[in-house]
Amino acid sequence: MQAIFKEIVDGEDQKVRDRIARDPSLVNLVATGQPKQYAGQSAMQVAVRTGAFALARFLLENGADANFVDTDSPSGWAKSVLHDAAVAAVMRSRWVKMTINKDSEKEWSVRNSDADADEAFETLVALLDAGAVVDAVDSKGATPLGRAALTANDVLPRRRDDQPERNDDRPLNPELVHDLSRIFEALMSRGADPDQVEPQLDMSLTQYYAHRLVGKFLAGEAQPDPAS
Question: Is 120 helix (H, G, I), strand (E, B) or coil?
Fold first, then answer.
């Protein structure tokens, strides 16, 4: 693995910044060799996928390609860096998980910090501001909004208004509503359209998620559960 990618993965941000200062052309270097999980990715793409968001924005500010696609990925799944940033922003949102407290009681706790959510979201916005194509389609036929919706469906409470018997009791917390709402708004305000046919689904996101919580976020109508 080239040195710059090892430094990104190891969290050695200053070494990466110093290296770019010495040789600006490295900003768009593509990873080769081992480990295979990074092969075919640009430096900024590796930074986004490993959660080095401040570094990803630094690379973008220094000429990294906002529309890079890892077409040489060994997995064969080619995605734009905007796809990765949209998924990362959702995964770093403040969703809740079940934990056990000191009294051995089950309780819900927020998964990520305010800083986690903000760093990932700021990177998504930076890419959009830099001209990342908002309706780009990955090699499996999904747009960035489609990937964001799919990931959000995984972190949201399971609530289907057509199958209420399958719903879970995970709360919809205000932090998650805030974080997901701004992600969807950022994408849609730049032209992502939930009513257009999503190639992978052969229907629109609005149709596909009509009976799920994600549909409310796509419509801008999501509200947190009332405080207990």
Answer: helix
Cβ-in-10-Å burial (0-12, 13-18, 19+) of 86 comes to buried
0.85 cut: is pTM over it? yes
- The percent of the chain in helix, strand and coil, each rounded to the nearest 5, is 50, 10, 45
CATH (residue range 1-78):
1.25.40
Residue ranges of the chain that CATH labels 1.25.40: 1-78
In whole angstroms, what is the distance from residue 114 CA to residue 136 CA?
29
Phi, psi of 115 (to 5 degrees): -65, -40
Q: What letter would DSSP give residue 93?
A: S
106: phi then psi, degrees, rounded to nearest 5: -80, 140
Each residue's pLDDT expressed in tens, for the chain with a length of 228 residues: 589 999 999 999 999 999 999 999 999 999 997 778 889 999 999 999 999 999 999 999 999 999 999 988 888 899 999 999 999 999 999 999 988 887 777 888 899 999 999 999 999 999 999 999 999 999 999 999 999 999 999 999 999 888 888 888 899 999 999 999 999 999 999 999 999 999 999 999 999 999 999 999 999 999 999 975
Rounded distance between C-alpha atoms, residue 71 and residue 79, angstroms: 7
